[in-house]
Amino acid sequence: MHAIGRFVGAQRDLEGNLIISLTVPDETIEDIQKIPQEEDVVIDVKKYRKHRSLEANNYFWQLIDKMAKVLHSDKDSVYLLQLSKYGVFTDLIAPRESIPILSEHFRYIEEFNDGYEQDDMIRIRCYYGSSKYNSKEMSDLINGTVEEAKELGIETLTPKEIESMIEALKSHEGRKI
What we know:
The chain folds into two domains: 1-48, no CATH class; 54-171, no CATH class. It is built from six helices and five strands; from the N terminus they run ββαααβαββαα. It has helices at 29-33, 54-70, 75-86, 99-103, 135-151, 159-171, and strands spanning 6-12, 18-23, 89-95, 108-111, 121-127. The protein has a three-stranded antiparallel beta sheet with strand order 3-5-4. It has a two-stranded antiparallel sheet with strand order 1-2. The two termini are 19 Å apart.
């Protein structure tokens, strides 16, 4: 069973066990009734996050493809360039030997060339792939990419069409793509 609900509260029973209360849509009742009482279940509760629309994602990749052709490059290189300009990242100080492990969790890693190195620790910037972005983050990435595409002479959607697509992006709550 998977549902979007709302946290109501938590309390302890007489034995000290934590009882968590959630509200969920009525249509989940059949799934809930199928779970035998006193049987262990897996519980995964996390903050709800808006998902982005497929239309916005497709448009972003269309722009990346067009930019790659104009720049005589490839889509992956242009994508990483756009992430480095408009993407979401975290800065870390980490052991140099951890880069291969971090590369498995981040889309792109950039080492700072600021001369910092202490006990084989380096400064790095780790960029998340756009598939991890929420609506606001994807909107920022698209808007920056649109501006650069215009500068390259690439035809883009009208500002009104882009605004409409961004609004659709924000309204796709709970829909997975």
